[in-house]
Every structure is written in structure tokens, then in C-alpha cells.
Design goal:
mainly beta, 12 strands, TIFA, 35% strand, five-stranded mixed β-sheet, 185 residues, seven-stranded mixed β-sheet, Tumour Suppressor Smad4
Length: 185
Amino acid sequence: MTSLEELETEETVTCLHITLYHPRQEEKQIFRNLNFLKREQLRADEVAKFGRDTNICHYNLMDSRVSRVQFALQFFRQLNNSELGFEIKNMSKRSKLIVDNLELDYLNKVDLPHKCLIRFGDYQLLIQRQEGESVDYFETRFELAQDSLLQERHLPLMQPIPESGISPSLNSQGVKPIEIDENDV
């Protein structure tokens, strides 16, 4: 019989909650290879790669418009600090990766904020980090959004205004686009 004092303390594990959205997710079954609403544990030294190549990527997006390796997430600990974090690296030569409002070209990387919206093509991923203590493992948990995450975060769905000054009458949401000066953004 062991006492409560002798039991090992259970370490909490950092978890990335990832909510996914694509406008044609139902008809194309793009996310069919992902395990939804179930935590999946990875070793801290593993690089979590997202893309369409099932031999290289841990998380597969079944779409020919996605690069073989679209982006990668790397778990790390800050130098001279106990804080744990992630960095995200764009692995696609074909498309930019947008982390909140920061554009990453091929092989550019940046620290992943605690909560951010990642976009490429028609894909939207809302990533929220739940802090943990373990330096050996981290977890991922996927959820599917039914509506655009841009609308949920109240980010403007901007449509460019042609240089001719003649704007299209209505965009796809039934709203007339408004021209704004680049300095007002």
C-alpha cells in the first residue's frame, strides 16, 4: 500500500488546440486523415509537419493544392529560461504562410503566439496553446470549424479594389467593398 506522498507528481503536457476550416471541407474531405477531438502525444524532439505527403507529414491535408510539406511546428524551450514554446516554419515554395498578419516566405520561421490564426490558400487554422510543464512531450488536439475563422475573429474579409476605381457591386458576403488607404490599416 503506497501513501499519497510517495506517488509521483503527474506532469501536465503542453497542448496545441487546433481548429481547422476550409470552405470546401465537407465535399472534398480534406481533413479525413486527422483525429478530431482526441489528444495525440508527440515527443518533444519531433517536428510536427503538415502537408499532403503521407510519408513525411504527421498531419495530412488531402488536397492537391497543399504542398507536400506545407509547414512545420517545432517545440522548444527558451534559452536561459524555463518557458516552453513553438516555432512555425513555412516549408512551401508555392505559397506564403500568414501567421496572424505576418507573412512568412519559404523557410521563414517565427515563434508561435499563444493564440493565432494561420492561413494559406483557403485554409484557416486557429491555434491556441494550453501550457504544460513536460519537456519530454507535447500534444495536439483538432477540432473542425463550421464557419470561417476570419469571421469568428472579426477580421475583415478584404477584397481588392481595381486601379480603375470601378469596384464590383457586391462581394461574396453581399457587402459592398470599401476602399481604404494602406496607411489606415
